[in-house]
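Run: sequence + adenosine-5'-diphosphate -> complex structure.
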Amino acid sequence: MNTSVSLSLRDVHLAFGRHRVLRGVDLDVARGGTACVIGPSGSGKSTLLRTVNRLLEPDRGDVLLDGRSVLRDDPDALRQRIGMVFQQFNLFPHMSVLRNITLPLRRIRRLREDEAVTRARAELDRVGLAAKADARPAHLSGGQQQRVAIARALAMRPQVMLFDEATSALDPELVKGVLALMAELSTQGMTMVVVTHEMGFARQVADTVAFMDAGVVLEAGKPESVFESPQHPRLRRFLSQVL
Ligand code: ADP
Ligand code: MG
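>> structure
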């Protein structure tokens, strides 16, 4: 994958009414790098991801792709460059797996039907689900459904992938396969921001681990330093609870 970009958040602020949820977030992800965002529930992790692909607009600060602000881009065009995978897979239940992937390629990317099908089959193959093209999502395991959701995002050829607790809704035995796929994407050079509770994944796959607390990145660094020698007492407390 050679289309990756670097991603930077600069002093991003966002409030819902009087509730200040992001209070000056800074985060840098190198081109082709993987940043894992960890932190307690309610600290603003999902809100942070949503400001990156402009499902939410920051009140202040900037989001840069390869040094260029995305805030003046057309949001729909931007979302074609940034793939997002959610905890809930959001597949259309009444369509085949293949159709779930070709539909956005047809509607948004304006591919011809044969091009869309070819690309969708290639992405299904990549996530190990070529044999499930004609199945309905309900006939797949949660892990397989999430891999379809990832294939659907990848088929759009994004420059950045955002994952918001992509494995949190899965039965424990299905988590591994999805994490392995995410690790593979990281190895292949996709630029990724991964919000996760999977500390083992963060430790092994991330270039940067960012700890969020109360709307700021309180501490960020290499996984070794964040996990082995955390500086901030709140990070130490968080790690003692989750590890
Ligand atoms: P996290 O993903 O770290 O658990 P979120 O970003 O989802 O945290 O939420 C951070 C805070 O913002 C929470 O207090 C949440 O209730 C609040 N919040 C999130 N989305 C909205 C919204 N659309 N309207 C109002 N408050 C929201
Ligand atoms: Mg969240």
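>> summary
The chain is about 40% helix and 25% strand. The first helix runs from residue 45 to 52.
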